[in-house]
Write a structure and sequence with these properties.
Elements lengths: L2 E7 L2 H16 L6 E6 L3 E4 L12 H7 L2 E4 L6 E4 L3 E7 L9 H17 L14 E3 L3 E11 L2 E9 L19 E2 L2 H5 L5 H15 L1
Parallel strand pairs: 1-2, 3-4, 8-10
Antiparallel strand pairs: 2-6, 3-5, 6-9, 7-8, 8-9
Helix pairs in contact: 3-5
């Protein structure tokens, strides 16, 4: 049985530090697998596969807006977090499940597909790409993980009701020919963030 922690709106670096502490405790057996949900103030993160040129604006411009660019150790390219986006960090001991990161990524995608299905949205996968898409052309959820001694960290970013205009600062995940979207944009009305979070938590609990 996984634990669930809600960190609320939290700075990215603080959340990353708390993830590292949780990973160490799970590796040592002090803690059990934990699913963290939170939101971040606007921040750009660059994963291990980030290519130069995938940030569209100058660092000085971003600094003037108070937007940090943070290099981290997850897989994937550049992405953006902002309020109204549900960020999930499954800090899981895969030795308790299946020692296969690709399997785990597909399981996370499945949880997100089930979550958005609650709102009548049909999510799918695009071969060779990680994340959840609509009609194979609009990305609603980005996923990037790190795994150390079979304990995972980082996770997914599901666009719920966030400001999608901020994604113009970057080429999301380095993919130029696809758009980003959100639950609110797809259903054409404001959505209850806490309700989405609760639904997502229930699905992760039932799956894991």
């Amino acid at each position: 049985m996984i634990k669930i922690e809600d960190w609320g709106l939290i700075g990215y670096m603080e959340a990353w530090e708390r993830q590292k502490q949780l990973v160490a405790k799970i590796q040592s057996g002090e803690e059990s697998s934990t699913f963290v949900v939170c939101e971040h103030p606007t921040v750009i993160t660059a994963g291990r596969a980030t290519k130069e040129g995938n940030i569209n604006v100058s660092l000085d411009f971003l600094k003037s807006l108070g937007v940090d660019v943070i290099q981290n150790d997850r897989g994937g390219d550049v992405t953006l977090h902002n309020p109204g986006q549900l960020v999930g960090y499954p800090i899981f001991d895969l030795k308790q499940y299946k020692q296969d990161l690709h399997w785990f990524l597909r399981e996370i995608e499945d949880c997100i597909i089930q979550t958005i299905a609650s709102y009548g949205i049909v999510g799918d996968r695009v071969e060779g790409l990680t994340g959840v898409w609509l009609e194979s052309k609009r990305k609603i959820c980005a996923i990037g993980m790190h795994c150390s001694r079979w304990v995972t960290s980082h996770g997914f970013a599901l666009n719920v009701k966030n400001n999608l205009n901020e994604f113009f600062y970057i080429i999301p995940c380095g993919i130029t020919d696809k758009e980003v979207t959100s639950i609110s944009k797809e259903i054409g009305t404001e959505v209850d963030f806490e309700e989405v979070k609760k639904r997502c938590n229930e699905i992760f609990k039932s799956k894991f």
